[in-house]
């Protein structure tokens, strides 16, 4: 009988004991899950913060990128200008191309081309046109002279009026020749006149005059 | 990095600018327009000054002919009077038509701000008179570097 009572009591006590055990375990699990959820919430908040920061960084970088694009455009402009300047300086420092032309009284006019500069180096022609013999039988060479007849339309030489412009060649008196080089700017025009004989008895000389000059861009 | 590269590029280009800008000039003048001033920031390198070959042709009674040269002198330099041919005062000669070697040496380099004037005469010192014709000056105007 006593054993039976104990059995009955046991039957009632055991489930209540196991139930209380399960409840504690469940409460513990719930607490752990809550902690996990909190952690996850914090992690999500952290990620959101990171994304927000990245968005902000991307925005700033985009603004910076536009600024850099503008800087690159400006610098490219400066580089372009500098390249142009270098090209101009190279052209200015260049010696230019040397040229020689055969001139004469019938082909005596020249004009510097637009955008060009001429550096006249010299005029060259013959030493003498002929020899004259004086009363003693001595032979004398006839001097050849080249004068600038006009510059930019202004007449400088007119021997009929005893007007003698700059002398650019004198076969017997090179000390009478104007100093070279002479630099002529674009569109400058000039003509020459070639004579032989003495200054008071000049006659046109029909020989060629070689005109040596260098031409380069402005 | 980008900025450094750009800066280097600009500096390289600036160092690559190896010369000074220069412009050719060909100036016509006479005794009424023979005053000049080198512009600020420029240098003038005068290569040649010249005028007519003969100032006057003189025929003598014996039938011979002689000539009088054309001469160009520096009249004033930075306000300093160099030539007064009527007072027989002659400064540096830059052109003499019958002896073109009898001048000061070319090229003549003048710094920025230099003021000068020239006078064109015919004859020889002691008996000069003003020359009516034109004269020419060819030069390079160089931009000074900072």
Show the largest interface. A-B, 44 and 46 residues
Q: Give the proportion of residues in helices of chain A.
A: 40-55%
User: Helix amount of chain B, in percent?
Assistant: 10-25%
Order of helical and strand elements of chain B: HEEEEEEEEEEEE
Number of helices of chain A: 1
Poorly predicted runs of 5 or more residues of chain A? none
How big a fraction of the residues of chain A is strand?
A: 25-35%
User: Which quaternary structure do these chains form?
Assistant: heterodimer
Rg of chain A from C-alpha positions? 54 Å
Envelope shape of chain A: rod-shaped
- What characterizes the major β-sheet of chain A? 6 strands, antiparallel
The N- to C-terminal Cα distance of chain A equals 135 Å
Structural class by SSE content of chain A: alpha+beta
**Mean pLDDT over all positions of chain B:** 88
| Basic shape of chain B | elongated
* Largest sheet report of chain B: 6 strands, antiparallel
Overview of this protein structure:
The complex is a heterodimer of chains A (218) and B (146). The model of chain A has no long low-confidence stretch (mean pLDDT 91). In chain A, 42% of the residues lie in helices and 28% in strands. In chain A, strand 6 and strand 7 (154-155) form a beta hairpin. Chain A is α+β, with helices and mostly antiparallel strands and 218 residues long. Chain B is mostly beta strands. Chain B contains 1 helix and 12 strands. In chain B, the strands form 3 sheets. In chain B, strands 2, 6, 7, 8, 10 and 11 form a 6-stranded antiparallel β-sheet that branches. In chain B, strands 1-12-3-9 form a 4-stranded antiparallel β-sheet, with no helix packed on it. Chain B has a two-stranded antiparallel ribbon with strand order 4-5. In chain B, a hairpin with a 2-residue loop joins strand 6 (70-77) and strand 7 (80-81). The two termini of chain B are 29 Å apart. The model of chain B is unreliable at 11-17 (pLDDT under 50). Chain A binds chain B through residues 68, 71-72, 75, 78-79, 82-83, 85-86, 88-89, 92-93, 117, 145, 147, 151-152, 154, 156, 162-167, 173, 175-185, 188, 198-200, 218, and chain B through 2-3, 6, 9-10, 13-14, 16-26, 28, 47-54, 56-57, 59, 65, 67, 95, 97-101, 103, 106, 133-134, 136, 138-140.
């Amino acid at each position: 009988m006593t054993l039976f009572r104990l059995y009955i009591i046991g039957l009632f006590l055991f489930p209540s004991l196991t139930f209380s055990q399960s409840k504690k375990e469940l409460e513990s699990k719930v607490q752990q899950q809550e902690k996990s959820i909190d952690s996850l919430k914090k992690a999500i908040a952290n990620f959101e913060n990171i994304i927000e920061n990245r968005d902000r960084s991307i925005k700033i970088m985009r603004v910076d990128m536009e600024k850099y694009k503008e800087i690159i455009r400006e610098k490219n402009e400066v580089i372009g200008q500098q390249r142009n300047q270098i090209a101009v300086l190279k052209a200015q420092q260049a010696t230019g191309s040397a040229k020689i032309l055969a001139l004469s009284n019938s082909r005596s006019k020249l004009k510097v081309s637009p955008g060009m500069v001429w550096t006249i180096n010299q005029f060259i022609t013959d030493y003498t046109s002929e020899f004259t013999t004086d009363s003693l039988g001595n032979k004398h060479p006839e001097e050849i002279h080249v004068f600038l007849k006009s510059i930019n339309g202004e007449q400088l030489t007119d021997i009929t009026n005893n007007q003698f412009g700059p002398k650019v060649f004198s076969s017997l008196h090179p000390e009478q020749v104007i100093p070279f080089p002479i630099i002529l700017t674009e569109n400058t025009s000039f003509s020459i006149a070639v004579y032989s004989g003495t200054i008071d008895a000049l006659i046109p000389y029909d020989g060629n005059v070689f005109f040596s000059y260098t031409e380069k861009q402005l | 990095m980008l900025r450094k590269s750009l800066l280097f590029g600009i500096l390289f280009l600036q160092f690559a600018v190896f010369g000074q800008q220069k412009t050719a000039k060909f100036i016509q003048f006479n005794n009424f327009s023979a005053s000049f001033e080198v512009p600020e920031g420029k240098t003038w390198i005068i290569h040649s000054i010249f005028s007519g070959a003969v100032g006057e042709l003189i025929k003598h009674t014996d039938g011979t002919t002689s000539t009088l040269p054309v001469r160009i002198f520096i009249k004033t330099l930075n306000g300093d009077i160099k030539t007064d041919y009527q007072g027989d005062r002659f400064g540096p000669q830059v052109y003499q038509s019958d002896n073109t070697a009898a001048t000061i040496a070319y090229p003549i380099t003048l710094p920025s701000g230099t003021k000068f004037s020239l006078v064109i005469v015919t004859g020889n010192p002691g008996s000069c008179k003003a020359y009516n014709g034109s004269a020419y000056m060819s030069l390079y105007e160089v931009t000074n570097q900072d």
